[in-house]
Amino acid sequence: MDLTEMKNSLNTVYTLWLREMLRYKRSRSRIIGSLATPLFFLVIMGSALGSTMTLRSGRYIDYMAPGIIGMSILFSSLMGGVSIIWDREFGFLKEILVAPVSRIYTALGKATGGVTAAIIQGTLLMVISGYIGVNYVSVIGQLFCILIMFIMGLGFIGLGITLASRIDSHEGFQMMMTFLTFPMLMASTAFYPMENLPSWLEIPVRLNPLTYGIEAMRWSLIGVSEVPLMRSMFVIIIFASVMLTLGSWSFDRAGDH
Q1: Residue 55 bridge partners (DSSP)
Q2: CA torsion sign, 205 to 177 to 50 to 32?
Q3: Which 8-state DSSP code applies to residue 135?
Q4: Both ends of the chain: CA-CA distance in Å?
Q5: How many domains in the chain?
Q6: How far is residue 41 from each of residues 32, 46, 48, 61, 68, measured CA to CA in Å?
Q7: pLDDT tens by residue, 109-161
Q8: Mean of the per-residue pLDDT values of the chain
Q9: pLDDT of 167-180, one tens digit each?
Q10: Residue closest to 144 by CA, chosen among 59, 232, 55
Q11: Residue 257 reports pLDDT greater than 60
Q12: What domain range includes position 196?
């Protein structure tokens, strides 16, 4: 790739990223809804279950906060795939696919836009959770948590792009979202530790990439984790790499149809 091609590719990534950011900025209902629902879970469930659950790691609301942030990253990243369906429906996707730029950079531009939106939401949740009483171990840990959000977001946006490249309707995508997100969320350590799980449920929890992202964030924010940090980071990095590759391939194939 020569210098001109590289410049055009980077311009494509930036343009699509900026388009996703402008779309996100204008959708105030999406921003409010993406914050209100997780905070509702944190305040109501954290208070209700916190009075009945005893954890060796400390208060339940502190334990639950990383899980709520992980839930936000999961939902917002997967929803990034909706923009592909919108763009296909209104003809914009066809226009950008005929541009003299590799489709991989087109997929990368949409992915970075979706991940940035997810990180903004996750960071806002982390800050607000601190104000309502969640205790974090350090500022450095919070900064490291943002890096974990980024890696998690890449993996789930890759999954979202893969699904959106194969599904033609909003209804079908929403149904698939529901089919995936709630089982992934409930079969993770977002709301309860693995030590309290029956043996049959521990298997899907340990196979779930969301578990490792949440455990890595839990280590960085409150200093405890049921999974060693290096193992969690290894799993989410591999997951992000595989899903981004699969998402780029699916997006490329979708443009041929």
Answers
A1: 58
A2: positive
A3: P
A4: 27
A5: 1
A6: 14, 7, 10, 10, 7
A7: 778 888 898 899 999 999 988 888 888 999 999 999 999 999 999 999 988 88
A8: 82
A9: 777 777 778 888 88
A10: 232
A11: no
A12: 3-254
- Alpha-carbon distance of 205 to 199, in angstroms, equals 10
Q: Please, which residues have CB within 8 angstroms of residue 157's CB and are 6 or more apart in sequence?
A: 77, 78, 80, 81, 111, 114, 115, 118, 243, 247
pTM over 0.85: yes
Nearest-10 Cα torsion for 29, 35, 186, 136: 170
Written as six digits, the tokens of 135 are 């205790």
Place of tokens 């730029």: 101
Instruction: Look at residues 105, 107, 148, 136 and name the one whose alpha carbon lies nearest to residue 224.
Output: 136
> Is the dihedral angle over the CA atoms 170, 11, 29, 178 positive or is it negative?
positive
Rounded Cα distance between 73 and 236, Å, is 13
Closest to 253 in 3D by CA, of 133, 166, 140, 149: 166
> 60-117: per-residue pLDDT in tens?
888 889 999 999 999 888 877 777 776 666 666 666 666 666 667 777 777 888 889 8
